[in-house]
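Notes to self after the Tuesday call (sharing in case useful).
The group wants a holo model before anyone commits to mutagenesis around the pocket. I volunteered. Ligand is adenosine-5'-diphosphate. Logging inputs and output together so the record is complete.
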Amino acid sequence: MSAGAKIATVTLNPAIDQTIQIPNFAMGEVNRVASEQSDAGGKGVNVASFLAQFGHKIAVTGFLGKDNAHPFEQLFGRLNIDDRFVRLAGATRVNIKIVDPDKQEITDINAPGLTNCAEGLAALEDAIDQLAANGTEQFVLAGSLPAGLPQTIYRDLISHLKGLGKEVILDASGPSFAAALDAGPDIIKPNVDELSELVGRNLKSHEEIITAARAVTGGRVGLIVVSMGADGALFITEEDVLHAMPKGAVVKSTVGAGDAMVAGILHSRSEGLPLADLARLATGFSLGALGEIGPHLPAQEVIKAFAADVVIEKL
Ligand SMILES: Nc1ncnc2c1ncn2[C@@H]1O[C@H](COP(=O)(O)OP(=O)(O)O)[C@@H](O)[C@H]1O
Ligand SMILES: O=P(O)(O)OC[C@H]1O[C@](O)(COP(=O)(O)O)[C@@H](O)[C@@H]1O
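Result:
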């Protein structure tokens, strides 16, 4: 077993992102595709590939369908990512992303995923334990759950990992996110819609968002990052709240912007950056992802230049 991935990402429901560009996309009409591309993705897979591009040694696990594992294996091979995915019978889902460059709109069609993941749970737990025993210190749990897994799975994994003294970063939504908060993940990154769903009302002002974020976490989460699309993100700790506002965004596709932010948070922490610099660089990662079609990042210098222009305000 190769030693040394300090960070591992867990993607229970990865996806092949099929991105099609359709100028002036019209529902209910015949549409012509201008270009298309296919990328191995899903939240934890994207976080891993972004971090690997920044020079981190990363391991990945979760569930992959055997029938179409090749694009994932190619990605992991190319980026030297340690592949600990559990293989299951069937095919990993294909998610469709319709990018309309004229209207500047992106339509996401996310499929439900494999239905037999419960069969692989013991193997997944083994893979996680092996990583933990082999020196992985931070685990990123990210994305939706495929059918058949209990909504308590993130909560249980977090409790287990915290018991082993590991740090956990969670990017989830819906009931699995709500249940997981009890276990005290170290960092969470909901977007404002996910946080609104959690509290059962539409959160609008920064003040409402901050109050709700602190209320639902009850002091159990060290860093809460609430991303708000074009309005940037709030970085909330017990002591501080910062608003990071992106400037000069060129939006080709929003797919992967949230995952890039998670990767930027982890990278910044590995560099020991203070909160304001972390917020700046994490936003720079997102801006990098926005300028690419599919879950890709530009060169590090480009991301650092984006980060330099981010406006940080202490609230
Ligand atoms: N249209 C946009 N213009 C400028 N920045 C954006 C835009 N969409 C996303 N971002 C940046 O990317 C970050 C993450 O995007 P967001 O859409 O909030 O996350 P998610 O993909 O998880 O829903 C935001 O906090 C912001 O910094
Ligand atoms: O697991 P979910 O919530 O269905 O999301 C999966 C989708 O999210 C992505 O990881 C992109 O996520 P973000 O846009 O939030 O960064 C895609 O690669 C994938 O198709």
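Two things stood out.
Residues 7-314 form a domain with the UDP-N-acetylmuramoyl-L-alanine:D-glutamate ligase fold (CATH 3.40.1190.20).
The pocket of 1,6-di-O-phosphono-beta-D-fructofuranose (ligand 2) is lined by residues 13, 15, 17, 41-43, 46, 95, 110, 143-144, 254-259, 295 (CB under 6 Å).
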